[in-house]
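Re: weekly structure request thread

Next one in the queue (367 aa):
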Amino acid sequence: MKKALFIDRDGTILVEPKTDFQVDSFEKFAFVPKAIANLVKIAREMEYELVMVTNQDGLGTDSYPEHTFWPYQNKMLEVLESEGVIFSDVLIDRSFEHEGLETRKPGTGMMKKYLAGAYDLANSFVIGDRLTDVQLAQNLGAKAIFLGETSAPAAALSTADWDAIYTFLKQQRVTRSASIRRSTSETNIEVALNLDGTGKMSIHTGLGFFDHMLEQVAKHARIDLSIQVKGDLHIDEHHTIEDTGLALGEAFLEALGDKRGISRYGFFILPMDEVLAQVAIDFSGRPWAVWQAEFKREKVGDMPTEMFFHFFKSFSDTAKANLNMKVEGLNEHHKIEALFKAFARAIRMAVARDLQDNTIPSTKGIL
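Done, posted below.
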């Protein structure tokens, strides 16, 4: 579904004259500071359709003749279009406030097209400098950005700076989440993942040490993670650990989508007492795992040490990620915990969104 920015004109794009509130001469014609620069970035970098929605009191009457409006309206659009800012629609209500017409903001009479179901209004915004713009957003089922020196409590953002509007919109990408259910004759696994979370976790695999390691991933990657596993532990731990890695990798692949705007690469060197762990990850679309770690004990807690690599290899296979891991040290518990923590921090770097670049991080155009 399409998303839109419904943008007011006077006071938002053009400076609104304080005398008669009409831009009807070139002496009164001026752009709001930083409006052009940020509209250019929004048009270039984001996937919003731009729609101008403006009340022009009495346009076409003796109090506001047509010939005192269009030269400056057209000049504004000409300047913006020369910089790549093109409005798909310009909606102008000519009525006076006392007429109470449905077409006048905050009414939606001019906007039936956008209410017909083809637009994702819940993730669209109205940008304006009046409370009627905030009310219009509410009437549309959209969100409001209030541009002014005061604040509007009902607005998603109140600011006097177009730079802040750009930054706010840049952060409004859809939450990256996934829910995976993997069911076989050996395991039943449910994974819920939110890459834009805060570290919330609910992890139960039936293996205490494995739970503890996966909790490190949620905490240090700063992702919300739920993993619920019922495995054939009466046989051994293999299927539970392997299939959890496969399900978790699949969740990452789904949550990342086309990987537009992510950093893609993550790398971290992590000390833990006498141990030094190094992890690098590339969500390249190509699975590969390199492992440089040796363990002298058969188990750490209730987790076989031979399964450490198998878990990460399984994750790499379904996440379609390149994973390079190395650890040196003396304490076996420290070594594997350091690897999990470094793995988490490398993920945190790799999935981070780049606010300056919403493209796919590859010259191929696909990952």
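Residues 112 and 364 are 40 Å apart (CA to CA). The chain is about 30% helix and 25% strand.
Next request, please.
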